[in-house]
Amino acid sequence: MSPEDMKSLLxxxxxxxxxYLSVCLDAHPIPPRLKEAMLYxxxxxxKRLRPVLCxxxxxxxxxxxxxxxxxxxxxxMIHTYSLIHDDLPAMDNDDLRRGxxxxxxxxxxxxxxxxxxxxxxxxxxxxxxxxxxxENLLRAAVALALAAGASGMVGGQQLDxxxxxxxxxxxxxxxxxxxxxxxxxxRASCLCGALLAGADTAVCDAVSxxxxxxxxxxxIADDILDVVADxxxxxxxxxxxAAQGKQTYPALLGLEESRTLAQQYARAAQDSLKSFDGxxxxxxxxxxxxxxxxxx
Length: 296
Known about the structure:
With about 300 residues, the chain is mainly α. The protein is built from 15 helices and two strands.
């Protein structure tokens, strides 16, 4: 698949996710200011990589992606909550997110915390709207909860906070931390698409490996961009990792070796899908290359 065709399908599935996200909070009454804060971050843009991964793997495994949409939207809700909380003064203390004031800058810290809490909690109500077999939905919900919780994203954030301020980490320690903080939700986005479709163990293992390798390539590219891109391009403060004393791949390996490593993980992601064919497999392989090439 050409890069142009990949971007077209990424945009198409991202736009469908946007449409669902715009109405997914309408089923129950929410205090107006809280809902405004939730939608402020939920509708802040982005490529919707995680829900697109879920939809694409579901399609790869034979499930109509429309049936996976509530679950894909829930993944984005959880991702958005994590960004709101990561930006708080007690965490990364970032004033910008996707080119706009961070949620706590726009609505105050208390409302930002509650908006994040609500997005996380409501996500599990939204994903229950998936019209798939109950056993498949339950397995996917458990996988998502594990990826988002203490053994995944939240635990990774704790490790990141502990390492902030110049504490030395080895490359393996850095990879393990990011496998929890960033990689767990990317991996789960892929795995949950397969689980919703009722895929067998071999397929689930293959797409999980794809998601894990993609997650490393994604994190390395993000680390590089924090060094070489400007604030306008990033949509958040450039150089914030170095300013906070965070360990990154460029800090440990240098830019060129980091770029090489990102490409290696992109190829590993592609290799995980060698037994698959069709549009969705081609798309996922092209997407892995795109993720690594962001920092080329």
